[in-house]
Specification:
Number of domains: 1
Order of helices and strands: EEHHHEHHE
Largest sheet: 2 strands, antiparallel
CATH superfamily: Cobalamin adenosyltransferase-like
Helix content: 55-70%
CATH class: Mainly Alpha
Number of helices: 5
Strand content: 5-15%
Number of strands: 4
Length: 183
């Protein structure tokens, strides 16, 4: 099977269910952002080392599941798609709480940076928020499972606390945002 099909040369792409959509359609934007997030998480795993695999690999698998739902025509798709178990959201919340308990209290916003893995985690968090916004935009026009929106919202919170954890685990400096006051 060839990688290229030439069917998208006119600016459309096929989704599950056989529908063709313009490549700038809200559905394509939503699952494209989820795909980009997954790639950024892969780079985070590479930068953070094997210890990150336990947390990140299940999330990457979840994102493929989310992407499959976003890449399906809710009215025409007949394929059975993998389910995103609702308990995954509860597990992410538990992980946030466990990580947060290990960290000093947050007294200021923090500036991204301090170590390449920390910076990459913040980039993934920002891409996650973009994926969430794109998925919300899609939900205004078409059916989107509520769990997908909740999952992306919780995941961005997890990525924030995980960036802080990486900062401390790697001995990096956490730089607080100190707003300048007018004189």
């Amino acid at each position: 099977m060839k990688v290229y099909t030439k069917t998208g040369d006119a600016g459309t792409t096929g989704i599950l269910g056989g529908t063709r959509l313009p490549k700038d359609h809200a559905r394509i934007e939503a699952y494209g952002n989820v795909d980009e997030l997954n790639a950024h998480l892969g780079l985070l795993r590479d930068l953070a080392g094997d210890a990150a695999d336990e947390l990140i690999v299940p999330i990457q698998n979840d994102l493929f599941t989310l992407g499959s739902h976003l890449a399906a025509d809710p009215e025409k798709n007949k394929m059975e798609l993998p389910e995103l178990p609702s308990e995954r959201i509860a597990q992410i919340e538990q992980e946030i709480d466990l990580i947060d308990e290990q960290l000093p209290p947050l007294k200021n916003f923090v500036l991204p940076g301090g170590h390449p893995a920390v910076s990459q985690c913040h980039i993934a968090r920002c891409v996650c928020r973009r994926a969430e916004r794109a998925t919300i935009a899609l939900a205004h026009a078409s059916y989107v499972q509520k769990e997908i929106l909740v999952y992306l919202n919780r995941l961005s919170d997890l990525l924030f606390v995980y960036a802080r954890k990486l900062t401390y685990d790697l001995g990096a400096k956490e730089t607080p945002w100190i707003p300048k006051k007018e004189k």
